[in-house]
Write a structure and sequence with these properties.
The chain has about 300 residues and is α/β, with parallel strands linked by helices. It has six helices and 15 strands. It has a single domain, classed as D-Amino Acid Oxidase, Chain A, domain 2 (2-Layer Sandwich). Helix content is about 25%, strand content about 30%. Strand 10 and strand 11 form a beta hairpin. The chain binds flavin-adenine dinucleotide.
Length: about 300
């Protein structure tokens, strides 16, 4: 018999399902979409708490996730890699960011050119196409199902990891989309990731992976369509090529748009005691940091579900 049904097969649902299984629960994941159609599959999936407010809870999730990815990278888990990264700042920052205690060795150094200084660290990266499939294999029981209401899910414990759809399923007005656009190009030999933290022309980052490079991006809070925008894609390539001239002429492999599930007040990871002794554990609203907070949240979901 299934003890827990996790609704949602993105990074949040799948990592929670893995942890629940490790604690001995019988777990089934229900997902409306195949892994490659989720928002999670669009993510650059570099460990970094983009536009996330730091509070002790978020710092703990970020810390635990960083440690878990470092462990998985050392163990050779498919789709994981470690990349040196530099966040470039046009306006001088005077202290390390709030998330620095989570990320091992983090250095604040002087910058060059238009950059006053930069923050450097080693960032775990998940190549989501491969990684989500690996997670799904660990879970074993993943079914395509669409729910209309949480109370129709027949299990004593239900995990609500439905990302943006949770806003509607729970009537939570704090959840909104934030459209994000990335362009994937061939890797001309880059092995360092760069982020221009305050590029006046727009969001600008370059994240090399094993075979390609993710160029970003955009972060449009409140925009909920995924319509293609070739002009925006061209502008992303142009900004990134200005940042890393070696990208000049790199072949474009794909162009992807996703809707981040942002939530004012931060992610909701919380237990609700429902009628009939059922438990619903909510885990949604991770905005631009779902990969970055995933394993820490999965630990918390597991405690809330089983303890
Ligand atoms: C361009 C872009 C770049 C990003 N880069 C990064 C990054 O570098 N680092 C980082 O940490 N984060 C990044 N993110 C953010 C990250 O992608 C999200 O925070 C994360 O994917 C949220 O995961 P999730 O599992 O909550 O949601 P999703 O991946 O959207 O999964 C939701 C799941 O719920 C299912 N579902 C929804 N409704 C129903 C229903 N009614 N019935 C059944 N199933 C349902 C869906 O089918 C899906 O399986 C990026 C996002 C974008 C768009």
């Amino acid at each position: 018999m299934t003890d827990v049904i996790v609704v949602g097969g993105g990074i949040i649902g799948l990592t929670a399902a893995v942890r629940l299984r490790e604690r001995g629960a019988e777990v089934t994941v229900w997902t409306a979409d195949e892994p490659e159609q989720t928002v999670s599959s669009v993510a650059a999936a570099v460990w970094y708490p983009t536009r996330t407010e730091g509070d002790p809870r978020v710092l703990r999730w970020a810390t635990d996730t960083y440690a878990e990815f470092r462990r998985q990278i050392d163990a050779g888990v498919p789709g994981t890699l470690l990349c040196p990264t530099r966040n470039l700042h046009r306006h001088r920052v005077t202290q390390l960011p709030w998330w620095a205690p989570a990320a091992g060795q983090v250095d604040l150094r002087d910058g060059t050119g238009p950059y006053a200084n930069e923050v450097g660290f080693l960032a775990p990266v998940a190549e989501m196409g491969v990684y989500l499939r690996w997670l799904a294999r660990q879970v074993k029981h993943v079914e395509r199902r669409v729910i209309r209401r949480l109370d129709e899910v027949p299990a004593p414990v239900v995990v609500n990891a439905t990302g943006l759809a949770a806003g509607r399923l729970c009537g939570d007005p704090a959840v909104r989309p934030a459209r994000g656009h990335v362009v994937i190009v061939e890797n001309p030999g880059l092995d360092e990731s760069l982020r221009d933290s305050d590029d006046p022309a727009g969001v600008t980052y370059v994240h090399p992976r094993s075979r390609d490079v993710v160029l970003g991006g955009s972060f449009e809070v409140g925009r909920g369509d995924t319509d293609p925008d070739p002009a925006e894609a061209a502008a992303i390539v142009e900004r990134c090529t200005r940042l890393v001239p070696r990208l000049t002429g790199a072949k474009v492999l794909a162009d992807r748009i996703g809707l981040r599930p942002v939530r004012s007040g931060g992610p909701r990871v919380e237990r609700e005691d429902a009628p009939g002794g059922r438990r619903i554990v909510h885990a949604y609203g991770h905005g631009g940091a779902g990969m970055t907070l995933s394993w820490g949240c999965a630990d918390e979901v597991t405690r809330l579900a089983l303890d």
